[in-house]
TrEMBL record:
Organism of provenance: Blautia segnis
Enzyme class: transferase
Record's protein name: Hydroxymethylpyrimidine/phosphomethylpyrimidine kinase
Pfam families: Phos_pyr_kin
One BP term from GO: thiamine biosynthetic process
């Protein structure tokens, strides 16, 4: 079985972060591992607290993972401080990690800030150059490119500027802001649109985490980047279309839609 690692923050409400990543990885057929950068106390209405891991303890988690079950792909999500970013960059270099998907998490769906300002420079200088693919939404692409994004053409320009600067592929997500469910992949000097059918579901907590983990899972399985993005879009569309409705805010998706079949008896039990 292929293996994938998420390096991210825990979401106590289970819809985003580490929990979304692990659910996504299982559903996409890979073995999931995690190195936790921070605990968050949050639910669908907001984040009330963040407790960071120490850089030493994050390093220890990564040492245990890489020296035993080597991950075929790595997804990086919420990393709130420059010390944690430096630790991740050092360890991924040391273990020659492959297929690195960086989701430059800055703000939660609920609006809470998940990265310190000082960490954005470290993210740019240390993590982006290691990425196989980077998955910013529009506000994140604006911060990383320094450009305002108002049109689909601006998405192409910003993705190209980021990709050329940091030598990585860039998937700029139209998401809820601009282009409905159409995402732009820039790589190797060219670009391609991935058209998604917009699903009328207000419950989008953790969509960014889920998409990046689905891409990592498919890269781990040996699919090329275009195919991995295609398959990840199909997975997230299915999870949104399952129309789970939990919580008082923007709720989580049903990550398990693809594996809730007659063998799990999940449908009969609910
Ligand atoms: N209503 C929707 N219908 C179909 N696809 C959607 C919808 N909303 C988002 N997506 C898709 O979900 C994926 C994640 O994109 P999104 O822009 O929501 O990420 P994000 O803003 O980083 O998420 P988060 O709020 O978790 O940080 C993208 O492929 C996007 O096109
Ligand atoms: C831990 C965590 N990571 C990422 C996000 C972004 O949705 C979130 N809400 N929580």
């Amino acid at each position: 079985m292929r293996t994938a690692l998420t390096i991210a923050g825990s979401d106590s409400s289970g819809g985003a972060g580490i929990q979304a990543d692990i659910k996504t990885m299982i559903s996409n057929g890979v073995y999931a591992m995690s190195a936790i950068t921070a605990l968050t106390a949050q639910n669908t209405t907001g984040v009330t607290g963040i407790m960071e891991a120490t850089p030493e303890f994050l390093a220890e988690q990564l040492d245990n993972i890489f020296t035993d079950i080597y991950p075929d792909a790595v997804k990086i999500g919420m990393v709130s401080s420059s010390a944690l970013i430096e630790t991740i960059a050092k360890k991924l270099h040391q273990y020659d990690a492959k297929n690195i998907v960086v989701d430059p998490v800055m703000v939660a769906t609920s609006g809470a800030k998940l990265i310190n300002d000082e960490a954005i420079d470290a993210l740019k200088s240390q993590l982006l150059p290691m990425a196989t693919v980077l998955t910013p939404n529009i506000p994140e692409a604006e911060v990383l490119s320094g450009m305002k994004i108002e049109t689909a053409d601006d998405m192409i320009k910003a993705a190209a500027a980021i990709g050329e600067k940091y030598h990585c592929a860039v998937l700029c997500k139209g998401g809820h802001q601009l282009n409905d469910a159409n995402d732009l992949l820039w790589r190797d000097g060219g670009y391609k649109w991935f058209q998604g059918k917009r699903i009328n579901n207000p419950n989008t907590h953790g969509t960014g985490c889920t998409l990046s983990s689905a891409i990592a899972s498919n890269l781990a399985k040996g699919f090329d980047l275009d195919t991995s993005v295609e398959r990840a879009k199909k997975y997230i569309s299915g999870a949104l279309a399952a129309m789970l409705d939990l919580g008082k805010g923007s709720g989580p998706m049903n990550h398990g839609f693809a594996i809730q079949n007659e063998f799990t008896l999940a449908k009969e039990d609910n």
